[in-house]
Amino acid sequence: MAPDAPPLDLLRRALPDLPPRLHEVGQFLVGHEFDAATRSMRGLAAAAGANPATFTRLAQALGYAGWDDLRDALIEARRPDPATPFSDRVRRDRADVVQDQPGIAAAMLAADAVGLDRLDATAVETAAVALHSAERAWIAGFRSCRSVAELLHYQLRLFRPDTVRLVGGSGPEDLDLGAFRQGDAVVVTGFAPYSRASVMTAQAARAARCTLIALADTPAAPMAEGADHFLRFDAAAGPGFFPSLTGAIALVQALASAAFALGGQQALTRLRETEARLAAHSQYVSGPKGIQS
Amino acid sequence: MAPDAPPLDLLRRALPDLPPRLHEVGQFLVGHEFDAATRSMRGLAAAAGANPATFTRLAQALGYAGWDDLRDALIEARRPDPATPFSDRVRRDRADVVQDQPGIAAAMLAADAVGLDRLDATAVETAAVALHSAERAWIAGFRSCRSVAELLHYQLRLFRPDTVRLVGGSGPEDLDLGAFRQGDAVVVTGFAPYSRASVMTAQAARAARCTLIALADTPAAPMAEGADHFLRFDAAAGPGFFPSLTGAIALVQALASAAFALGGQQALTRLRETEARLAAHSQYVSGPKGIQS
DNA sequence: GGTGCCATGATTCATATGTATCACATGCCG
DNA sequence: CGGCATGTGATACATATGAATCATGGCACC
Fold first, then answer.
1. How far is the CA of A25 from the C1' of D3 (A)?
2. Which of A131, A232, B47, B87 has the fewest CB atoms in 10 Å of its CB?
3. In chain C, which nucleotides are within 7 Å of a protein Cβ?
């Protein structure tokens, strides 16, 4: 009578097919897992503004004998692992852990965590200063690095809407390279083997005497050559066939945050304006009831 | 009647002066904090081999009104801090606080590394199986999550060129939602506040009986509701103004690698073909064997 | 326009739960 | 030795709790 799957998974999967009241209470449950494991059914019902009996019915709808069964499952699912009571395990241990877990996913995730340790925060800070003082900022990245470029472009635009552009935004052939001017900053991301477009972008940036910020896997990368700022990330980390971009993503996020901090009150104001505009256009839906997360 | 100090500290300090039975039960309590917060007093007494009344007496000896008071304190002390959403963070952290934090880049990078530890490799593996066995795969992500979606889309296309598509590839209004069919898999990434498009995509996927794989910051996220697979990442990690996507990036990379591993020889062959095609078009300028940049 | 079905709220009830109370034991000081 | 205080186990009880049951209302399907 008690399913063995994780109760929250079970609940999440069943949620759409549940009648309105059960659905409502189910949503509350997913968002208040901890209270469900600790408080009483009636207490929960009061907090959720629902009828106590609904919780019993929800538990039974999920295949449990009753609310007590569901709660026991929630408790056991959340019980802390006695072997590793503290979360700050040394990341160096991960390599050993990986050997026990045959999955490639586990190995990649572990390698990513290691790769983030090697990033240079100081270099990010100084690059952020250059980015901040540039008249316009161009963001370039191609093939898999396009995701990195898009993220940086997106975050910068939140508080610098008019002076940031994505290189090649209209397609791979439209490279904007002729528009580079002295005083602009150009951010190029890439790793071996280097795409032709990224190298051309870096060359054009240098030719136009822009401030060139290069994110790459090695200082010997073509786009790093002659770059004013070089931020290194480890793309080859991990056992997967595909290189890892977590390092690059972490770099551009740190870069954007540092640039924002330099932007001061003006940046904050623009960010608020952007947020307000998005909210006005109903781009966002409200999160789960209550907690907002 | 209820002390405000952490209950476990209180208990530990009072422990030596307690009479034998209380001392015994008190020791049990510090070693079974979790059970104390979840199970009933009588249940605890049975587990500890003690008299139920002893727990009431212990609570009162510590200055609490009764066992319920002590347990409530234990519960609150152990309650996980709720993830602070993006906009709240902006509102809370005033400009003057964050303005001139010289180490914001370093702090973000450190937080990212910690966030990667929490990812669930097993869930990624099972999601990869679902993705692998799907006829077609749709990848969705909007606003800042578009970068995540694009990366997954890119990597999957390397070895699955004809059966992967990016939702809304032609613009925000072109959502492809009507094209979902049973047997397809839909991957949606999002975090609070959730973009309308992402929620609509998830709903359409469920309506079409697709396999829904949701990547989000909490199981209570709208797109996680009814999802067949849920992969959690921590978007609020770090001190930055912007949420972090490193966790999501790490997840999709692991997902792509795991799906590739499942694809076996056929996937490998297709990947080689794609590489050869790119090389033939001179997309790359140099570099060792690898995939792309 | 019935008619059955399901969702939902309200009521009721057996049981579990926390605690006050009593009873007994033990040790201490006179 | 006797009173007394304190620690401990057992019992009783008022209350809280979870769930079965009944009653109502809406909705789809003949």
1. 62
2. B47
3. 6-11, 16-21
Out of B53, B78, B103, a domain closes at: B78
Angle, helix B41-48 to helix B20-31, in steps of 10 degrees: 100
Residues of B in contact with A197 (CB under 8 A): 283
Q: What is the pLDDT of residue B237?
A: 59
Distance CA A62, CA B192 (A): 27
CATH number at residue B36: 1.10.10.10
User: Where is B215: in which H helix or E strand?
Assistant: strand B211-216
CATH code of residue B180 = 3.40.50.10490
Which domain, by its residues, includes B59?
7-78
Residues B209 and B271 in one domain: yes
* Residues A173, A33 share a domain: no
Determine, yes or no, domain membership for A285.
no
Q: Would you say B118 and B235 are in contact if contact means Cβ atoms under 8 Å apart?
A: no
Q: Specify the number of domains making up chain A.
A: 2
Q: Which residues of chain B have pLDDT under 70?
A: 1-3, 81-102, 170-175, 237-240, 281-293
pTM assigned to the model: 0.83
Render A260-276 in DSSP notation, one character per residue.
Answer: HHHHHHHHHHHHHHHHH
Ranking A25-29, A60-64, A266-270, B284-288 by mean pLDDT, the lowest is B284-288
Clarify whether residues A53 and A123 are in a common domain: no
B241/D5 CA-to-C1' distance in Å: 63
Answer whether residue A291 is part of any domain.
Answer: no
Query: What distance in Å separates residue A249's CA from the closest CA in chain B?
Result: 6
A128 plus A42 within the same structural domain: no
pLDDT at A263 over 90: no
- Report the alpha-carbon angle A290-B147-B194, nearest 5: 15
Contact B152, B282 (CB under 8 A): no
Chosen from B228, B253, B286 to mutate, greatest number of chain A CBs within 10 A: B253
B46 CB-to-strand D distance under 7 Å:
no
Distance in angstroms: CA A247, C1' D4: 74
pLDDT digits (tens, 9 = 90+) for B109-159: 877 777 787 888 999 999 999 999 999 999 999 989 999 999 999 999 999
A174 alpha carbon, distance to own chain's centre: 28
Instruction: Tell me whether residue A120 is in a domain.
Output: yes
Q: Which of B29, B56, B78 is the last residue before a domain boundary?
A: B78
Chain A residue with the nearest C-alpha to that of B218: A293
| Range ranked top by mean pLDDT from A86-100, A179-193, B109-123 | A179-193
CA distance B84 to A291: 9
* Domain identity same for A59 and A133: no
* Same domain flag for B132 and B251: yes
Nearest of B107, B106, B86, B116 to residue B253 by alpha carbon = B116
Partners of residue A190 on adjacent β-strands = A216
Q: Residue B104 falls within a domain, yes or no?
A: no
Distance CA B245, CA B113 (A): 12
- Closest partner residue to B253 (CB to CB) among A142, A242, A253 is A242
- Note whether A24 and A165 are same-domain residues: no
pLDDT digits (tens, 9 = 90+) for A33-58: 999 999 999 999 999 999 999 999 99
